[in-house]
Each structure stands twice: as structure tokens, then as C-alpha cells.
Fold this protein.
Amino acid sequence: MELISFLIDFILHVDKHLETFVLTYGAWVYALLFLIIFVETGVVVMPFLPGDSLLFVVGAMCGVGLMDYQLSVALLFVAAVAGNQSNYAIGRYIGPKVFQWEHSRLFNRKAFDQAHAFYEKYGGITIVAARFMPFLRTFAPFVAGVAQMTRSKFSFYDVTGGALWVGGIVTAGYFFGSVPWVKANLDKIIWAMILLPGLFVLWGALKTRRKAPAVAGRN
């Protein structure tokens, strides 16, 4: 319970914890940040670790001189790309074993073929867009591996999405993190970065479910 409480507090007050870590341990913060981003994107069971909010706070700290901007972007970009590659590799290893269950309703050859076709057609935009959505960011590369998405295609969009995600959010924090209004409302901004993408995905899922019966009725 204490670990869970600490993780929740770390996620919601990542700015304070990160600043304390920098002032106490100095350059070791780069190793910590690399580990967090790598695990958050590379281990399918760790989607709850901070991502967007962490990158924004890193940018803000770079803006006030507590961290190096270029080093932070480069290091976290590598962590994000390597994390996705790890997640993809895990999914690619597990996929063939799972889809051998021919009598399963969910995991059978037909389901695999459908998932593979989807990721071959829409996998690129899925991998890039998922970078900006908590939870989906962790699961999308894993499912791409399970669906055996072409590795070269996955890698291209992994690098593209990683560059946009890390570069975009760290840069936003760099330029806007020190603005008085942003500093005064950072806790609310962190909540928004956690909740709004999730609500958007939920709205999309509900909209899709409502359309499905209508389509079935017309058929």
C-alpha cells in the first residue's frame, strides 16, 4: 500500500519529486528518467507510470536551467523508441503462441489475420497517435507485435512517434513551463494530461459501439 501511495503521489506531484531528485542527486536524474520512460513504454504491465506530464516537467526544468534540454530530449527519445521496440518484441514472441489456441473465441487464426491486416493498414497512425494517449501508449506496440506488424514499418512509425512525442512535449514544457499561470496551475495541467486523452478514447469507443448496432440493423 505504501508503494502504491508513493506512486500516486509521484504521478500527481512529479514536478516537486523531480526537482528534489535533481537537487539531491544531480546528473543521476537522467538515468532515472530514462528508466521511467523505457519501462512505461516498454513493459506492457506498467502503463500507469507518468509519461506526458513527466516530459512536460522535464522541459520546464530545462527552461529554468536545472537540466540540459538537448541531452534530455536525446536521452528520452532513445528511451521511448527502445521501450516501444521492447514491447513490440515481447508481443511478437507471445503472439504465435497465443494464436495457436484454435478453439479459443478470441485468440484464433481468424482473429490473428484480422489484427495483422488492421496493423498493416492502420498500424502507422495507431503507433504515432498512441504516443499521446496514456495506457494506449503502452499497449499499442505490444499489440502490433502480437499482430506481427512488419518490423520495418513499425520501426519507422516508432521513431516518428517518439520524436514527435518527446520533442513536442519537452519543448512545450521548455517554453511554457515557467509561465506564472502554468506554474500556479501545474497540478491541474497534470490531471488534464492524464484524464483528457483517456476520456477522448472512451468517447471514441462508445461512439463506435453505438454505430455498430445501427450498421447491423441496416444489414
